[in-house]
Amino acid sequence: MELLSEEAKLEEIVRLVGLDALSNREKLVMLVAKSIREDFLFQNAFDPEDAYTTQIRSYNILKTILTVYFEALPLIEKDEEFDFKKLSELSVIEELAEAKNIKMDELDKFDVLLEKIRKDINSI
C-alpha cells in the first residue's frame, strides 16, 4: 500500500516534468507499483484461475513483484550512477508480468522466477 501511495504522489511529478526527472529510487517505486496494479490487483473474472485464486498463489505473485523492489533498492541506494534503464530492460521484468499466469499446479515456477530475479538484478 505504501508503494501505491507513493506512486500516486509521483504521478503528478511525472505528468509535469516527465519520468526522467525522478530519482532512480522513485523510478523503482513507479516500476514496482505499476506491476502491483497491473499484475497483482488486476483480475479477470472470466478466467477460472484468476477468479478463484488461492491465497498461496496471490502471496507468491506479490512476493515475486516485491522481490524486484527489495533486490534493486540496495543497489540503487549504494550507487548514485546506477543505470536504471538496464534494470527496466531486464527480461525478468517482462517475465514478472507473466507470473500471474502461473497455475496452482505449477507453484514451483515461482521459486525459479524468484531466483532469476535475484540473479539478474544483482548482475547489473
Question: Can you describe this structure?
Answer:
With about 120 residues, the chain is mainly alpha-helical. The chain has a single domain (about 1-120), classed as Bovine Mitochondrial F1-ATPase, ATP Synthase Beta Chain, Chain D, domain3 (Orthogonal Bundle). Helices cover about 70% and strands about 0% of the residues. The chain has helices at about 1-15, 25-40, 50, 55-80, 85-90, 90-95, 110-120. α1 crosses α2, α2 packs antiparallel against α4 (about 55-80) and α4 runs parallel beside α7 (about 110-120). The protein is globular and about 40 Å long. The model has no long low-confidence stretch (mean pLDDT about 90).
Summarize the structure.
This protein has 124 residues and is mostly helical. The chain has helices at 2-17, 24-41, 48-51, 55-78, 84-88, 91-97, 108-122. It has a single domain (2-122), classed as Orthogonal Bundle (Bovine Mitochondrial F1-ATPase, ATP Synthase Beta Chain, Chain D, domain3), CATH 1.10.1140.10.
